[in-house]
Specification:
By secondary structure, this protein is mostly beta strands. The N terminus is likely disordered.
Length: about 400
C-alpha cells in the first residue's frame, strides 16, 4: 500500500463562501446507529487430551458493522484429587492457532496463540480502554487439590474496531453470502497444566459478536444520516513476525510488516524451553526509523513506562497476575500513549496523530543491546491500520 499522504493529515472541509449554499446536515454514523450484540455460537463441550483439537471454522453471521468478537471460555472439572497447577501462560494459552479471515480470504488476524491474544487484550487498548483480563469478575483459575481444581473461566476479545468514537475500522458485515471466518484450536492438557487435574476439563466457549446496526438513510424527521462510518473500508490488522534470535549478542532486527500505519508493537521473548524470559531481555533497546534513532529505552525505564502508562504497579510476574506486568512482554506504546486524560496514558481513544505512517520501503528496526545467553525466540505482533484515506485516519472530529 502507498503511504498515507501526511500533507492531507490536517485538511479541513472548505468553509462556504458568500453565495455558496452550506452543506445539508448529516447525522454522524455513531449517533444514527446503535451498538448491538448477538450470540454467534456456543460450542459443544470438548474434553482436553494429548492432542491439539481444531474447532470447526466459524462463519460470522451478517449484521451491520462488526466491532469485536467476545469469547467466554469455561473449563470445568469435578472430582479432582491432584494438586493442580497451571503452566505459566495458562489458562489463556488454551486457545491456539487463532486467525480471522475476510470474505475474500485476506488475513485480518495472523495466526496467534491464546497468550498472545491475552497480551493484545491487556496492553492493546484496541477499541476499548485499557483493562486487565484478570480484573473481570468472571475470571478464575482454580489450583490445588480441591474437587474443582483445574477449573477456569475467562473472557478473550477478538478485536476489530480500533476506535469506538467514530467506529474506525469496524467491518462492514451485511452480506450473508460473504462471511468473515474465525478459526482456532484447543491446546493439549500438558501445555495448559504443569500438574493436570484427575479428570481432564470439559471446555465450552460462548462467542458473541458486538456490532453497529446499519442506520436508515434518514431519521423519522427526514434528516439525512450517515449510513457508513467515517473511513468505511479501513481495516485493523494484527501481523506477526518471528525473527531469528542470536543469544548473547547485539542484534538489529528489521520489522517486515510495514507499508501501513503502525499503532503498536508487542514483543514476547522466550527461552529454549518456550518459557517467557524476563532475565535475558536486553539491558538497552534502540528503535530506528530509516536509520534515524527514534527511541532509546533501558530495560528498567521501559518497565517503568509500561507501569505508568497502564497503571499496572504490582511488579513483573512469571504468571498472569492482577495489575502486574508480564515476564518477557514488552510493548512499544509510543504511538498510543497520549490518551484523553493526558500524556503517558494508553487508551483506545489516543491521538491518531502519533500513529507511525510507513511505506513499503520504510526501514523500521529494533536493536537489542544485547540478548542474554538463554534468549531463544522473539514473537513480534504489530497492530497496524490500513486506512482507506488520510481523512479516514485523521478523522475530522478528532483532529
Amino acid at each position: 500500500m502507498s503511504v498515507i499522504p501526511t500533507a492531507n493529515a490536517n485538511s479541513r472541509p472548505a468553509i462556504p463562501t458568500s453565495g455558496n449554499k452550506a452543506p445539508a446536515q448529516v447525522i454522524p454514523f455513531t449517533r444514527a446507529s446503535r451498538k448491538k450484540s448477538r450470540l454467534v455460537l456456543q460450542t459443544a463441550a470438548v474434553t482436553l487430551n494429548t492432542t491439539v483439537q481444531a474447532i470447526p471454522a466459524l462463519q460470522i453471521p451478517a449484521g451491520g458493522f462488526l466491532k469485536r468478537l467476545k469469547l467466554s471460555v469455561v473449563g470445568t472439572t469435578s472430582g479432582n484429587s491432584a494438586t493442580v497447577a497451571f503452566q505459566a501462560d495458562a489458562p489463556f494459552n488454551l486457545l491456539q492457532q487463532i486467525s480471522l479471515l475476510s470474505p475474500n480470504g485476506d488475513t485480518l488476524i495472523n495466526v496467534i496463540d491464546g497468550f498472545s491474544l491475552f497480551v493484545i487484550n491487556k496492553y492493546g487498548a484496541i477499541g476499548t480502554g485499557k483493562f486487565d483480563p484478570l480484573a473481570n469478575p468472571g475470571y478464575s483459575a482454580v489450583t490445588g487439590a480441591g474437587s474443582t481444581g483445574g477449573s477456569f473461566a475467562y473472557e478473550a476479545h477478538i478485536p476489530v474496531e480500533t476506535d469506538s468514537r467514530d467506529a474506525f475500522t469496524a467491518l462492514q458485515n451485511m452480506a450473508a453470502n460473504q462471511s468473515y471466518l474465525l478459526q482456532f484450536s484447543l491446546n493439549t492438557l500438558a501445555l495448559v497444566y504443569s500438574t493436570a487435574p484427575t479428570t481432564a476439563p470439559s471446555v465450552v466457549i460462548t462467542i458473541v459478536m458486538e456490532y453497529w446496526a446499519a442506520p436508515a438513510p434518514t431519521n423519522a424527521d427526514g434528516v439525512m444520516q450517515a449510513s457508513f462510518p467515517v473511513g468505511n473500508g479501513s481495516v485493523s490488522l494484527l501481523q506477526v513476525q518471528t525473527p531469528a534470535i542470536v543469544a548473547g549478542s547485539q542484534q538489529n532486527i528489521q520489522l517486515v510488516n510495514v507499508g501501513n500505519v503502525i499503532r503498536a508493537v508487542f514483543l514476547i521473548l522466550r527461552n529454549s524451553s518456550a518459557v517467557r524470559d524476563e532475565t535475558d531481555w536486553p539491558t538497552v533497546s534502540n528503535w530506528y526509523l530509516n536509520n534515524d534513532p527514534l527511541y532509546y529505552k533501558t530495560k528498567a525505564q521501559w518497565r517503568n513506562e509500561m507501569a505508568q502508562q497502564y497503571g499496572y504497579f504490582a511488579g513483573v510476574t512469571s504468571t498472569p497476575t492482577l495489575n502486574a506486568l508480564d515476564n518477557g512482554v514488552f510493548v512499544l506504546t509510543d504511538f498510543i500513549n497520549d490518551g484523553g486524560t493526558g500524556d503517558y496514558v494508553v487508551q483506545g481513544g489516543s491521538n491518531r496523530d502519533l500513529f507511525l505512517v510507513t511505506e513499503s520501503s520504510t526501514a523500521f528496526n529494533y536493536e537489542a543491546v544485547s540478548w542474554g545467553a538463554s534468549a531463544s525466540t522473539l514473537f513480534v505482533i504489530e497492530h497496524v491500520i490500513r486506512p482507506i484515506s488520510a481523512a479516514a485516519l485523521y478523522a475530522p472530529q478528532f483532529s
